[in-house]
Amino acid sequence: MLAACAPTTQIAQPDLRPYDKVLAPFLQVLESRQPEEAGSLTLDEWIKRGDELRAKGDKDEAMLAYLQSYKLSPNNIPVLLRLGRLHRDRHELELAELALRSILDLEQSSAEARADLGLVKLDQRDRVAAEQLLEEALRLDSARWEAHDALGVLADLRGDHGGAVAHYEAALKVHVSPMVLNNLGYSYYLAGDLEQARARFQQALSADPSFQRAQYNLALVTAKLGSYQEAVALFGKLMEPDAAYNNVGYLCMMEGKYDEAEAFFRKAIEISPKYNVIANENLKALQRMRSN
Fold it and tell me: Where are this protein's TPR repeats (predicted)?
């Protein structure tokens, strides 16, 4: 008599998230090059190390530290947030999206993950998805200043400068950021309010004197306001003197101020007669415009 075969039992394996599958080969490599202290550091210590390395701009080592954190706690939302942000820093937008969607699988109500995912979608130029996610983030947490800032950018892109200003002002009530002040200034510039624009660029530079984008924008709006020598000095903080004179000359030319433009182009050529090809070309373009 044949005995009945006992059914085989298998332990069900947990389903891997898309992000887990992507990280699997990287974690295998990590295993092969474990640092000596890998087993001695706690989750919080790995996170702290990653934060410090990211702040220093060492993105590769920061990634290794965050991956060590992920190994210890793959469902840890602060770790997944950090991985998403670091992927975005590294322009790995698809990986950033996977990391952030993993958070939403764990916690649908995470305003932070929705805001960050909205920023990723904005980077991917998916404006519709970006706006939806950012607005959802604000409904969950009205203090998410980065969501207000990004919605301001989207409003400026569609020409709604009043709406953009409202979002930037809301962001600044929560967090005074040189980036937001610069964006607010640029929104005023686009709307034609040059004095307000200049004031905001100056505020951005007061908050961060090394912020080159605000420095450039301040020089630009100063030239637009007709303070040409001041604009040359401001551009001169970012570039060589001949390039600064050429920039102001070009702005004058675009506004039909041909005499001023010619004077600035000639000054640029005088400073660098052999190398300032651009100023020479601009001077020729100016002469053609005058003859038409």
Answer: 43-76, 178-211, 242-275
Q: Which two tokens stand for residue 57?
A: 């701009």
Same domain, 266 and 194: no
Domain range enclosing 154: 142-225
* Dist CA 65 CA 55 (whole Å): 13
What is the number of domains present in the chain? 3
Identify the DSSP state of 11: P
Task: Please state the rounded mean pLDDT for residues 75-87.
Answer: 98
Q: What is the pLDDT of residues 25-45, one digit of tens each?
A: 878 777 776 666 666 899 999
Q: Using the 3D structure, point to which of 67, 96, 130 is the last residue of a domain.
A: 130
Same domain, 178 and 246: no
Distance CA 142, CA 163 (A): 16
Q: What is the pTM of this model?
A: 0.85
Tokens linked to 269: 């050529």
Question: Which CATH number do you get for residue 112?
Answer: 1.25.40.10
Residues in the chain: 292
Banded pLDDT at 91 (limits 50, 70, 90): very high
* Same domain flag for 150 and 160: yes
For residue 218, pLDDT beyond 50: yes
